[in-house]
Amino acid sequence: MNLPKPYLVRTGLDEILAGLREGDAFPPERELALRFGVARETVRQAVHELLVEGRIERRGRGTVVARPKLVQPLSLKSYTEGAQRMGRTPGRLLVTWENTTVDAELAESLRVSPTKPVMHLERLLLADGVRIGLESTYLPLHRFADLVDDFDPTSSLYAAIRARGVVFGEATERIETVLPSPREAALLETTTAMPMLLLNRRSVDIDDAPIEVVRALYRGDRVAFVATLTDG
Fold it and tell me: Quick check: helix, strand or coil at residue 28?
């Protein structure tokens, strides 16, 4: 049986990867095309699939085997805690910190008047210095106005919130796949063709008072999410 060339190429690339370790150089497209006896476009498509899956990455003018994806648990834990559990060094870069008004839907989620400002904190999430996510957090200003006095935006926001005596009760999250805007792609140092994981979350405290509304965009080639489910 004659198998399709794209299938044979992809199977061959998987075999090559199985013999390489993180950081090893991945063969260039021209060499792969000669090895498999196919057009470079066929190889290019298979390599693109591996890039999107996060199994290889561009580094300089070449391509190398990528680190495993950062696996984040879906829980009321901070990004810092999730990254550290995987032995990665978390980091954040501040993009925006402002008090601003929001639309009626977001105001309702935070239980504030649409005419009243809320706190907006936008930060890039890093793992071992690599930009993997863009997090936009909205907080009710009447609860957290004093963050401006002592909060370091490169540190854990959840730790700062808990230090104020706030106890997280529960959160509702929705995850979907999207493509980034040109601005988001530039901030995340990727292209608008890179699939993203979009996480929308609303958290409340044990008294059901809103804590935050978050829109977090994660690079699909760098991050995966995991949840633990129980029957009961």
Answer: coil
End-to-end CA distance of the chain: 49
Beta strands 90-100; 196-205: pairing state: unpaired
Residue pair 192/180 in contact (Cβ under 8 Å)? The answer is yes
Residue from 128, 134, 125, 6 nearest 66 by CA? 128
Residue 133: CB atoms within 10 A of its CB come to 24
* Ordered structural domains, the chain, with CATH: 5-65 (1.10.10.10), 70-226 (3.40.1410.10)
| DSSP string of 96-138, one letter each residue | EEEEE---HHHHHHHT--TTS-EEEEEEEEEETTEEEEEEEEE
Specify the amino acid at residue 22.
E
Q: Which of 120, 65, 69 is nearest to 223 (CA)?
A: 69
pLDDT in tens, the chain (232 residues): 577 888 888 889 999 998 899 889 999 999 999 999 999 999 998 998 898 888 888 887 888 888 888 877 777 666 777 777 777 888 999 999 999 999 999 999 999 999 999 999 999 999 989 899 999 999 999 999 999 999 999 999 999 999 999 999 999 999 999 999 999 999 999 999 899 999 999 999 999 999 999 999 999 988 888 877 777 6
